[in-house]
Amino acid sequence: MDETITSRRTVLRAGAAGAVAVAGLTACSKGGGTGTTAAGSGTTAVATASTTSSSASSAPSASTAATTPARAADWTALAKDLDGLLIRPGDSRYDSARHLFQPQYDSLQPSGVAYVAGAHDVATCLAFARRHGVPVAARSGGHSYGGWSSGSGLVLDVGKLGSVSASGGSATVGAGARLIDVYTGLAGRGVTIPAGSCPTVGVTGLTLGGGVGVTGRAYGLTCDNLSSAEVVTADGQIRTASASSNPDLFWALRGGGGGNFGVVTSLSFRTRPAAQCAYGFLSWPWSKAAAVIRAWQAWAPSAPDALWADLHLLVWADGRTQLGTTVNYLGPQSELSNQVDRLAVTPSSVSLHTRSYLETMQVMGGVSGWSQAASHLAGSLPGQNPSGRVTRESYGAKSDVFTRPLSEAGAEALVAAINRYPRTGPAGGSAGVAFDALGGAINRVGAADTAFVHRDGLFMAQYTANYPDGVVGGNGADRSWSWLTGVWSAMRPYSSGQAYQNYIDPHLTGWEQAYYGGNAARLRSVKRTYDPGGMFHFPQSVPLG
């Protein structure tokens, strides 16, 4: 079996013949989520959070002061006030600057994109936004599922803040660092942090929404390893959020979702050993799908912490299907082999490998054998690279957290819903369902200890529909979402009702309860403290009321 794999959505596009496995739920479908700082599009909105000292009591309402419309001269003055770069319509770089990861959001036309050079640039931008009533949206990696890391106003892009350093059991990471840069930068020190798979996802958006990843069962979520963050709040104050400084804000930043409390400019993490990994790809014939679902869920969530596994069920418009799992083990390949042998349904194909931690993360992210430079989007702006080979894609996605095993009827209902895709999805499209094992260190943190409430899950499910090539809306998008709604609805009797905030779902009703559960009220309280005027607002931002 070929060891070279790609991220889940690239596999869906490539066709089953050449696709032997799919990276976990944290591949390039993360954003939210997972890889961006989500922010509002159309009203005032900011996404990430981060920065230094001063008490929250000084934060005034952003809506109390009178505003004057921004003129061309005001924008010119803002550009001169920044140490970073401001790109406006008419600039030859504007189209590249305004684009998010998904082409379906290419119609968004922000008034400006500021590549901030630090916390003081963020404070300057926020003062400009307050003075002129300009909506703001913060952007880390640009992977927001809802397109909420852009909008009509001023986008604050933290891509220039991409430094990565480590010393003495901790790492300091700039808010705009992409995951490939985090993994590569820390690997040289023999350490890592648990994070996602997609190489171009921004570390800040991932962290703020939780951060489910390949080593999460052993090391916890990304947010569980956060020790402090530098955050610029709505009043322009640069604050440190940690266990001892602004602890309520620190609590909220660990799972409260991007775009709610301020703009993060730097993060500090506890590091973990970048241990050599054993990983592998297992597959079964589609006819065994229901039985494999039941066997996988009895195996992966209760396995030793060192083991992580996904389960992916993929389908193409032409009727092709694929059933498999990607596994990773922080230990010897012989022990991984022993764990695989415990699956109740024997795989028809097994391929196991041993590589360094960095090489394994490259495999999981679909960039095995690529250089660090190639593992970016192409371009010359911050966060991009002229040698970048990662391509943009449009898709829809929904999620579930399962707290009890799927019954036989539930497994069969899921397979039936997937089998309907060739009849109902758009020609040229592809879709799938991916389970990601939880448990282990993730579930040993209390539901109220951080804002990430999903501490009782067995596994997470993401339902994904890739639009056909060139489709950004219209019938192709509508048919994709129709299938997504159908498969998600089929799972209502079996799921917990929880959803992963990093897989932010613009179609989800009851999203506050689904994302935050019993932590929603406390998040509202933190919101009122640090953003009383609602500057950081988007369609699914934490409410003030």
UniProtKB/TrEMBL annotation:
Pfam family, one: BBE
Keywords, in A-Z order: FAD, Flavoprotein, Oxidoreductase
Span of domain FAD-binding PCMH-type: 106-274
Cofactor(s) for this UniProt protein: FAD
Keyword match Flavoprotein: yes
Highest taxon above the source species: Bacteria
InterPro entries listed in its UniProt record: BBE (IPR012951), FAD-bd_PCMH (IPR016166), FAD-bd_PCMH-like_sf (IPR036318), FAD-bd_PCMH_sub1 (IPR016167), FAD-bd_PCMH_sub2 (IPR016169), FAD-linked_Oxidoreductase (IPR050416), Oxid_FAD_bind_N (IPR006094), Oxy_OxRdtase_FAD_BS (IPR006093)
Family, as annotated: Belongs to the oxygen-dependent FAD-linked oxidoreductase family.
Protein name: FAD-binding protein
Provenance organism: Streptacidiphilus jeojiensis
